[in-house]
Amino acid sequence: MRAIFHWNLGSRTIELGRRTLLMGVVNVTPDSFSDGGLYFDAEKAVAHAEQLLADGATMIDVGGESTRPGAGVLASGSEPAQGESRRMRTPVSEEEERKRVLPVIRDLKRRRPEAIISVDTYKATVARAAVEAGAEVVNDISGFRWDPKMAKTLAELKVGAVLMHTRGRPEEWRSLPPIGDPVLLVKRELRQWAEAAILAGIKRDHLALDPGFGFGKSFEENYPLLARFSELQQVGYPLLAGTSRKSFIGRTLARDGQDAPVEQRLYGTLATETTLILKGAHIIRTHDVRCAVEAARVADVIVASGG
Question: Which of 5, 37, 92, 145 is deepest in the core (most CB within 10 A)?
């Protein structure tokens, strides 16, 4: 069974649990792993967002910085360091990230005022500007930990907030030690970080949690997290999950020693998304909304039938 929640976004409250909601992904970046910069242009990004809404997305997640493995990340109030390692991609500055996402959020909100817009950022100043432009959700991959001002900012903004679990930072992921039990670790740390967010002033009913598939987890660690996803319901918050086109799926679908490329991971993605719904996910973050909508409809009937 899937728990029912009422997620408070500040301007409205939405029910989670009776049916799966789809969060469509719009990357306004030149180097996204999933689309390689197809929607870096603001007009193209807005058109893509409108298509995702037409395909059945309930909300759109707009991001202006790639956090693929090896990417550099930048805490709010700082600037990219001089002489960075060549292996690490230069972090996107706050100014540049705002230039990327704000026009998309403003224009999409103007064209589709009923749409729920999320901003994918770990920077408090970007989050505040995005909310002022029309975003109702802040999706922070760092769990409000990379920018010390984020939790307080979200408490002040009173919007929906997605707290995601990440181990380390992207430039560290390839060298992280293995996790003994990834499910126990993620469950424990999500609970701790959610409690810290509440102590910082964020209301409990504004929070949703994401276990962060692929974010500091190795190939071997993502599948236990998927298989035992239902255990995360014990933490007591709405659950969002994103496995769309991720590398652990590509590795599973490898042929002749080569991981399946991003464009060949759709069916594997749908298998993981269906599994997540059956195990209690309330929101699925996905690139392929049209296909995910049909999978979710069938999975939701199974859930409603006692599955």
Answer: 92
Strand 207-210 vs strand 137-140: parallel, antiparallel, or unpaired? unpaired
Q: Which amino acid is at 125?
A: T
Give pLDDT tens digits for 186-220: 999 999 999 999 999 999 999 999 999 999 999 99
Tokens encoding 268 = 């594997």
pLDDT digits 0-9 by tens, 137-175:
999 999 999 999 999 999 999 999 999 999 988 888 888
User: In this structure, what DSSP letter does residue 258 have?
Assistant: B
pTM of the entire predicted model:
0.91
Dihedrals φ, ψ of 26, to 5°?
Answer: -125, 110
The answer to whether residues 41 and 74 touch, using CB atoms and an 8 Å cutoff, is: no
Give the separation between CA 303 and CA 307, rounded to whole angstroms: 5
Identify residue 56 by its one-letter amino acid code.
G
Can you give the CATH number for the domain in which 281 is found? 3.20.20.20
Tokens 């298989």 belong to residue: 227
Q: Specify whether 285 is catalytic.
A: yes
Q: Kindly name the residue from 100, 123, 217, 246 that is annotated as catalytic.
A: 246
Number of domains in the chain: 1
